[in-house]
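Following up on my earlier thread - several people asked me to post the actual chain instead of describing it. Fair enough. Here it is, all 166 residues.
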Amino acid sequence: MFLSSKRLLLKHLVLLAASLVLPKRLHGDALLWQTIAQVQHDLFPASSGVPTLKEIAATTYLKRVMRETRVTQEHKAFIRNGERWLNETSQEQYHKSYTALNASQRQALLQRISKESWGERWIATLLTYIMEAMLCDPVYGGNIGEVGWKWLHHTPGKPRPSKALV
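Reply from S.P.:
Thanks for posting it. Predicted structure:
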């Protein structure tokens, strides 16, 4: 009887933990990507004649990177944690999430976190992935229609990859 009760208790604890964690994680992923897309927009705003984030598929490209098994878990955690730290700082300063701020508040917040070592690294990481999305071969999920290459008048080398290797 004791063993059965112990198993039953363990089963209920696991189900309770799953019910508490799963919805939060799903909501967290939505907030993560909404925030990252807004930060990308704030770091690389649309400009006449320059490919847009949508054209280069910057957020989609970063999502693909985050699914890549060759990218370390520590690096993926840093990107996720940076978004969480940004939103925590936003809540402390404005009592709102980053995406609920107006443009000038978002810029002020980015300037503030850029003075922190984690913030400077996180912003640099997101900018690096924006540039990768703009300049990679389209087979990797960015630079849709070669817009980045066309903008820079770049002719890619041969042979080009026929499928994504990473």
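The chain has two domains: 1-31, 51-166. That should answer part of your original question.
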